[in-house]
From TrEMBL:
Pfam families: ParBc_2 (PF08857). It comes from Mesorhizobium hawassense. It comes from the Bacteria. Signal peptide: none annotated. This is Chromosome partitioning protein ParB. InterPro entries: ParB/Sulfiredoxin_sf, ParBc_2, UCP029669.
Amino acid sequence: MIDPREPIVTPVPVEELRPTQITVGMREVALKRQMIRAQDAKKKTGTFLGKHMVPVVLGPKNRNYVTDHHHLARALLEEGVKDVLVTVISDLSALDKDAFLFVLDNRGWMHPFDENGRRRDYSAIPKTIGELVDDPYRSVAGELRRLGGYAKDTTPFSEFIWADFLRRRIDRSAVEKNFDKAMKDALTLARSKDADYLPGWCGPTDD
């Protein structure tokens, strides 16, 4: 049995990582790329990667399925970083593909929703990190958390839950034309009672 907290010492090629979601926020990826570029020496880059290991579940054929840090993985790929350390949180490599995907879904290790917020078949999940699709609302949700619109939460894919909330209230063209204005609207929405059911909500209360 693999200790769920024990990292795999041997680096895994970034291009071989398997996503468990369909989208990322490309603005979020760009921020991660800036972080990586700031590590201008190989020694610093090694330290950075050592502190940002990617959690994975081992699936059929011992493939590494990413359960978090998709944005980091995509940024590493775009920056030409070949390998990354991973932390194996569960070994499900003995399962067949259908059973494996079902378990991922039911344990909250998968988010099969497209850039329009629609649930899709498992087959729609890309096979490589490089094929992940941009969802601008995921970028809004990420920036919203950094601005204090809501708190970091352990709920799986909490940023996507916020992204879906914002998707229903801010027009996509508004996000694409004026991101800063969309963020002001997002902050107002985040503090409203309409958002009080969302993970990490920290709006005003009557208590």
